[in-house]
Write a structure and sequence with these properties.
Elements lengths: L37 H6 L1 H4 L12 H10 L3 H10 L5 H14 L4 H21 L4 H18 L1 H6 L2 H15 L4 H18 L1 H8 L3 H14 L4 H15 L4 H13 L5 H15 L1
Helix pairs in contact: 3-4, 4-5, 5-6, 5-7, 6-7, 7-9, 9-10, 10-11, 10-12, 10-13, 12-13, 13-14, 14-15
């Protein structure tokens, strides 16, 4: 598969006019999350990364950066990742993207952060076309960026095809990557919701039945994924409307009942609880 499929020209990403490097990141709003050090991080690594199957770092400064990430110190974790170049790219991309998605309150800065992740990951994927972490975080950042500017506009700019291609490549390379299955399922559901099933199938090659299969497989691989449960619930409503409201509610209830193991999961569980109270 050509490397060019995974690059994201800057011309496709409209400038937002904000510079997040001059704006301090907002702290995690919870002070009672589990705090990790390198010992506890590595002891719980497989559970913490059940959605991606990422290999653990060697004990040392990079592991300390991952401990900061799982403790909710996203800005400090991203800074550590940047200091480690290629080896730290997964950390800086994950810390930045998760912070932008869940915490950053300023929309212009959120979009700028997503652009930065997408561009950094695309550059790495261009040099390393089999790097699942680079491909996944490019797709994640482009997907969230697309939601921020409107999915319809993003599809018109060609961003949807890049998200789909990157996620399909991740699944082909790493069939047990639960998060990629969930993200690709959500992509199918979002496109169908915005353009309708016929146009979605003929123009973008997405189908409702494929979305359901991907959601099911993703949760089979990582059944305790609060974000996966919520995405499935949202996907059912986008695909089938109120006819699947009961099932969507039950998925949110499962997410809200989980015991979070780190800061990101705490954010997911709180989001699920908020969704049930709306």
């Amino acid at each position: 598969m050509p490397v060019s499929n995974f690059t994201t020209p800057q011309s496709l990403l409209a400038p937002t006019g904000a510079n997040p490097m001059t704006a301090p990141w907002t702290p995690l709003p919870y002070s009672d999350v589990t705090r990790f050090d390198t010992v506890s991080l590595l002891a719980h690594w497989n559970r913490l990364h059940a959605g991606q199957g990422l290999q653990p770092p060697a004990p040392g400064p990079l592991a300390e950066g991952w401990a900061l990430y799982h403790s909710g110190e996203f800005e400090r974790a991203a800074a550590v990742g940047l200091l480690h170049g290629r080896e730290g790219s997964a950390l800086v991309n994950q810390a930045t993207a998760i912070y932008a998605n869940y915490i950053e309150p300023r929309e212009a800065i959120r979009l700028t952060l997503f652009r930065q992740v997408a561009e950094r990951a695309a550059t790495q994927a261009g040099n390393e076309p089999d790097n699942c972490q680079a491909l996944y975080w490019e797709a994640y950042a482009l997907g969230r960026y697309s939601q921020g500017i409107s999915v319809a506009r993003a599809l018109a700019q060609g961003l949807g095809g890049k998200v789909k291609t990157a996620l399909e490549r991740v699944i082909a390379l790493q069939p047990h990557h639960a998060d990629a299955h969930i993200a690709l399922a959500a992509f199918h559901a979002e496109v169908i919701d915005k353009v309708g099933p016929l146009v979605a199938r003929m123009t973008y090659g997405v189908r409702a039945e494929t979305a359901i299969e991907l959601f099911e497989r993703g949760l089979e691989l990582h059944p305790e994924s609060a974000s996966g449960l919520m995405e499935y619930g949202r996907g059912l409503l986008m695909l089938y409307g109120d006819a699947r409201m009961g099932e969507a509610t039950r998925l949110y209830q499962r997410a809200a009942a989980l015991e979070p193991v780190d800061a990101r999961e705490r954010l997911d569980v709180e989001l699920a609880r908020a969704g049930l109270s709306d």
